[in-house]
């Protein structure tokens, strides 16, 4: 028998709300745990943490972009600004896993780049592997980001942009930032792919490269305003250099401005609620396929049910999951003799 | 018996890389070594000195006087060279990020003793570029680091003309896994980057520039494949001659000579049957002594027991005697070049040159060595080469006597002594150095110190040569930490790429394929039993920057299915414990090669307990003598891996079992 030592969710929630680091760490471990006993406790933990606050407080920020664009050093520079202002920050840094037939391992190297020199109790970094899940962001990221939202002012989710990831991250973050690599084909691909609809803020890092960086910024600038998604938002394109520390302050200011825009437009709470529903659907579909969704009466019915639980849909997700499981098991139940 | 010929060649400079505990203890060792026939000094500095920290800095804890001598200020330097005439000695200093500072202390001391700096001769290693790749004692980003190298060159050319201001190192590239072709290519690219930087500084006119080229020397490694190594050195000579003529228009062939010193390979020395290291060292020395045209100017040999711990004076004496036998007893120095005209040698040299040229072109196409380091390219190449070597050892394709074949051995009388056949550094050294430093701070003139530091900071900002203001700091009694911090404030600090982001190798070279498959199954099964994939933190506490071991463990752990948090080098025990907590890992692996394992591992365990993580298993790897291993296990460390544990698969299997055991699962035992 293993000494799993699963924590008591109610006590843990109280400690997390007090901002105890050990509790945050053990809460994240619990949300990551797939044993049935742990799943039940994870749902209880999230239930204890939930509330209307979840629709109005904090700021969930997604940062994505191709490998080598300098996301981590940019996140590092942003963290410095937030910490100087006394704002607490939680970071979920997602790196790709190797393919399952190659062991599925992962090197999580962001921590070394994000690290601030001094010991800092207002900063908490958890690295995660994407575990080969379809969209490039592991399913665990969603509940984990909400746990962090319960105890940090800002939650940053950093992922490597490899096509689909941007869509995933759009369903987590209030504000999504795309970091472009100057003078690389990635940006052009990116512009062509149509995913440009998603980010709210664009950063062209490595401005010290000069002309190449300006060219990329111009290309993005020309494409970005074409969209009509959120009227009243200007989709800024920032030219900056994380290593040379230029353009950071202006860039940084856009995040707070975007959050104020969401609140003023009444979008923050609505978006967060929609994002949760999208994740529930995605996770159910990933686990049980379209067939599973049909067992619950189809996509529209699920969305309607979830709509009744605006601030926390985790419990409802778990109920739906158990419902599907019991239906599947009853279908496959072997006949008992005699 | 035939008497030796009279007109023998002069032997090379004979040195032993040494220094420990304190300036006084090291001075006594140097004077003994000189009395035994050593002809030059090679100073090993401790890690706080190498990375610009004072002995009382929190990062220095446990590291003071461990891998070398602590030098915090000019009085330490004075004590280190007590009764050693600076104008007659040839002193080599293995110092890089703080080279400009240690050279300033040396020049300052000469001035104080009334010696003209023009009479000083010796070498500062001062190759900061390779620090990013393997040795790890960098401080500042590449730009300012290149400037410090250029400043020392520009200064010494005028004021200390017999000094070798920089020693371009291929030594550490080989220790990091480089093949001979990579060694040739990256060392020559580094030399070009340095010369280009000096040229661009505009401090040296075109007519003086050949003198700069002449002062560039190299520090090379020699491994056990001694014929290939000998050819590598001939290739170095030919390529340098051609490069300095074509790229820098040096007309005088004398100024184009490839001058180099050597420390033979430490990577291949074994902890198992350590007496075999003696013949390895001698054969490796042959590579750099055999060919007159490509013979080393200075040689320092490691001691036979280097893979076990710090050598004792007797071990170092044995290493010196190997050189003396080669130089004075054999007839080696009586002949012209014995390899000239050999078609086999010529063909091998051409092959190496062709390979190195291709790789140089490749690096140049990426914008030169600095750009290729910043992009992570070179580190990835080195980690890849090193991984291939380890896989060849694991598979038995590369034979290491006593390690992966012929393991049977009688008990060695050499290792039976009560001291474990290694040197114990003085445990009181750190406290004494701190007291001495604090006393020094009380004695000096604060106004002078402040003015000198202000001058240093101004120069750093203005871009003028850093040396005059550094020498002024030395004379005013500024400390190593103050010098380092002043420049940190202006230049910033650097974190280079780790190189562990190399692609997973899916071919059947991952050690033994069946073992890897079995390991992946074990890692996966254990993760399922615990509810989430196994996660490991690989950390290097302390100032030791030799990250190869940690990197190989990180890459291997990823290959067998672990989620790996690799947190890089130079971490405090608090940072490691905090990372273990935030990341929710199942096990922590620590790598320590500096000999500070007792203090550092102890502190990490303490920090984990303070965070309620007493149950989190910790394993440690490094050069850890058996007696210390026992003490560490008693402190709560779950497993110790030393150089004799060459099989990474076996280590991984054991780590999985450590995780299983601490979670109440049964051990799975040895891999099939």
Model description:
The complex is a heterodimer of chains A (338) and B (672). With 338 residues, chain A is α/β, with parallel strands linked by helices. In chain A, α1 crosses α2, α1 crosses α3 and α12 packs across α13. Chain A starts with 8 loop residues before the first helix and ends in a 6-residue tail after the last helix. A 7-stranded parallel sheet of chain A has the order 4-2-5-1-6-7-8, sandwiched between helices. In chain A, β7, α10 and β8 form a beta-alpha-beta unit. Chain A is globular and about 65 Å long. The longest helix of chain A has 29 residues. Chain B is of the alpha/beta class and 672 residues long. Helices cover 49% and strands 8% of the residues of chain B. Chain B has 25 helices and 15 strands. A 5-stranded parallel sheet of chain B has the order 1-10-9-8-7. Chain B has a 5-stranded parallel sheet with strand order 2-3-4-5-6, covered by helices on one side. The longest helix of chain B is centred in the middle third of the chain and has 23 residues. The radius of gyration of chain B is 25 Å and the shape is globular. Chains A and B meet through α2, β3, α6 and β4 of A and α20, α21, β12 and α22 of B. β3 of chain A pairs parallel with β12 of chain B.
Q: Name the helix and strand elements of chain A from N-terminus to C-terminus, one letter apiece.
A: HHHHEHEEHEHEHEHEHEHHHH
Strand content of chain B is: 5-15%
Strand percent estimate of chain A: 5-15%
Write down the Rg of chain A.
21 Å
Structural class of the secondary elements of chain A? Answer: alpha/beta
Q: If helices are DSSP runs of H or I spanning 4 or more residues, what is the number of helices of chain A?
A: 14
Described by the principal axes of the CA atoms, the overall outline of chain B is globular
In DSSP terms (H or I, runs of 4 or more residues), the helix count of chain B works out at 25
Strand line-up across the major sheet of chain B: 1-10-9-8-7
Largest sheet of chain A: 7 strands, parallel
Low-confidence stretches of chain A: none
User: What profile does the largest beta sheet of chain B have?
Assistant: 5 strands, parallel
Strand order of the largest sheet of chain A: 4-2-5-1-6-7-8
Which oligomeric form is depicted?
A: heterodimer
């Amino acid at each position: 028998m293993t000494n799993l030592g699963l924590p008591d969710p109610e006590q843990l929630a109280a400690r997390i709300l007090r901002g105890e680091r050990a509790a945050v760490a053990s809460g994240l471990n619990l949300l990551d745990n797939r044993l049935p006993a742990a799943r039940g406790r994870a749902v209880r933990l999230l239930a204890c943490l939930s509330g209307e606050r979840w629709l109005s407080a904090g700021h969930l920020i997604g940062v994505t972009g191709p490998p080598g664009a300098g996301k981590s050093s940019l996140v590092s520079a942003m963290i410095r600004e937030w910490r100087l202002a006394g704002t607490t920050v939680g970071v979920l840094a997602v790196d790709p896993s190797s393919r399952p037939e190659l062991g599925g391992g992962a090197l999580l190297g962001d921590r070394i780049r994000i690290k601030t020199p001094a010991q800092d109790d207002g900063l908490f970094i958890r690295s995660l592997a994407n575990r080969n899940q379809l969209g490039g962001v592991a399913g665990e990221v969603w509940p984990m980001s909400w746990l962090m939202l319960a105890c940090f002012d800002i939650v940053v989710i950093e992922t490597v942009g490899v096509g689909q990831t941007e869509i995933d991250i759009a369903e987590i973050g209030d504000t999504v930032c795309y970091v472009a690599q100057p003078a690389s084909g990635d940006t052009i691909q990116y512009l062509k792919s149509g995913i440009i609809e998603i980010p709210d803020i664009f950063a062209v890092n490595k401005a010290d490269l000069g002309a190449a960086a300006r060219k990329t910024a111009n290309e993005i600038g020309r494409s970005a305003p074409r969209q009509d998604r959120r009227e009243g938002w200007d989709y800024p394109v920032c030219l900056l250099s994380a290593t040379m520390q230029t353009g950071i302050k202006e860039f940084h200011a856009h995040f707070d401005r975007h959050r104020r825009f969401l609140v003023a437009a009444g979008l923050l709470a609505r978006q967060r609620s929609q994002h949760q529903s999208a994740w529930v659907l995605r996770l159910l579909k990933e686990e049980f396929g379209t067939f599973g969704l049909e067992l619950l009466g189809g996509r529209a019915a699920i969305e309607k049910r979830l709509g009744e639980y605006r601030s926390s849909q985790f419990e409802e997700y778990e109920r739906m999951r158990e419902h599907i499981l019991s239906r599947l098991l009853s279908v496959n139940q072997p006949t008992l003799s005699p | 018996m035939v008497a030796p010929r009279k007109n023998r060649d002069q032997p090379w400079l004979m040195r032993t890389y040494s220094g420990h505990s304190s300036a006084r203890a090291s001075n006594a060792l140097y004077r003994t070594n000189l009395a035994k026939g050593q002809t030059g000094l090679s100073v090993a500095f401790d890690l706080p000195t190498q990375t610009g920290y004072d002995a009382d800095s929190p990062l220095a804890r446990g590291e003071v006087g461990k891998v070398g001598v602590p030098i915090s200020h000019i009085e330490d330097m004075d004590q280190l060279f007590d009764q050693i005439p600076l104008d007659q000695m040839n002193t080599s200093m293995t110092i890089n990020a703080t080279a400009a500072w240690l050279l300033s202390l040396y020049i300052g001391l000469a001035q104080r003793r009334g010696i003209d700096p023009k009479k000083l001769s010796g070498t500062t290693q001062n190759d900061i570029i390779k620090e990013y790749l393997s040795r790890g004692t960098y401080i500042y980003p590449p730009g300012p680091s290149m400037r410090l190298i250029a400043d020392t060159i520009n200064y010494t050319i005028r004021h200390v003309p017999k000094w070798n201001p920089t020693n371009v190192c291929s030594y550490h590239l080989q220790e990091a896994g480089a093949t001979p072709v990579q060694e040739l290519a990256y060392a020559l690219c580094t030399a070009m980057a340095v010369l280009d930087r000096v040229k661009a500084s505009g401090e040296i006119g075109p007519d003086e520039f050949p003198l700069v080229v002449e002062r560039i020397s190299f520090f090379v490694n020699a491994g056990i494949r001694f014929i290939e190594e000998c050819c590598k050195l001939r290739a170095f000579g030919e390529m340098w001659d051609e490069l300095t003529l074509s790229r820098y228009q040096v007309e005088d062939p004398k100024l184009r000579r490839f001058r180099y010193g050597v420390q033979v390979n430490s990577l291949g020395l074994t902890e198992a049957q350590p007496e075999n290291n003696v013949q390895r060292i001698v054969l490796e020395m042959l590579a750099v002594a055999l060919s007159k045209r490509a013979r080393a100017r200075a040689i320092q040999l490691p001691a036979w027991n280097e893979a076990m711990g710090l050598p004792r004076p007797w071990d170092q004496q044995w290493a010196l005697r190997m050189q003396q036998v080669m130089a004075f007893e054999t007839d080696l120095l009586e002949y012209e070049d014995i390899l000239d005209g050999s078609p086999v040698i010529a063909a091998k040299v051409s092959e190496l040159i062709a390979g190195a040229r291709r790789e140089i072109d490749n690096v140049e196409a990426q914008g030169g060595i600095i750009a290729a380091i910043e992009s992570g390219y070179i580190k990835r190449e080195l980690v890849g080469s090193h991984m291939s070597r380890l896989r060849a050892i694991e598979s038995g394709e590369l034979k290491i006597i006593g390690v992966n074949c012929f393991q049977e051995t009688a008990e060695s009388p050499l290792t039976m002594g009560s001291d474990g056949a290694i040197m114990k550094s003085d445990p009181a050294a750190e406290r004494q150095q701190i007291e001495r430093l604090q006393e020094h701070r009380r004695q000096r003139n604060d106004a002078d110190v402040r003015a000198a530091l202000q001058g240093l900071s101004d120069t750093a900002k203005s871009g003028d040569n850093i040396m005059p203001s550094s020498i002024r700091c030395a004379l005013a009694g500024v400390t190593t930490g103050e010098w380092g911090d002043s420049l940190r404030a202006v230049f910033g600090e650097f974190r280079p790429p780790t190189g562990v982001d190399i692609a997973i190798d899916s071919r059947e070279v991952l050690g033994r394929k069946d073992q890897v498959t079995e390991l992946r199954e074990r890692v996966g099964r254990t993760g399922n039993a615990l509810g989430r994939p196994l996660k490991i933190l690989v950390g290097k506490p302390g100032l030791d920057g030799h990250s190869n071991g940690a990197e190989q463990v990180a890459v291997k752990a990823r290959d067998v299915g672990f989620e790996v948090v690799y947190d890089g080098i130079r971490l405090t025990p608090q940072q490691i414990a905090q990372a273990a907590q935030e990341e929710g890992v199942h096990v922590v692996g620590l790598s320590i090669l500096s000999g500070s394992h007792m203090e550092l591992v102890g502190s990490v365990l303490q920090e984990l307990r303070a965070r309620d993580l007493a149950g989190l298993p910790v394993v440690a790897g490094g050069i850890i003598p058996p007696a210390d291993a026992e003490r560490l296990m008693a402190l709560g460390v779950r497993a110790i891996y030393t150089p004799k544990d060459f099989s990474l698969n076996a280590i991984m299997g054991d780590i999985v079992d450590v995780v299983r055991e601490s979670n109440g699962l049964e051990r799975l035992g040895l891999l099939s």
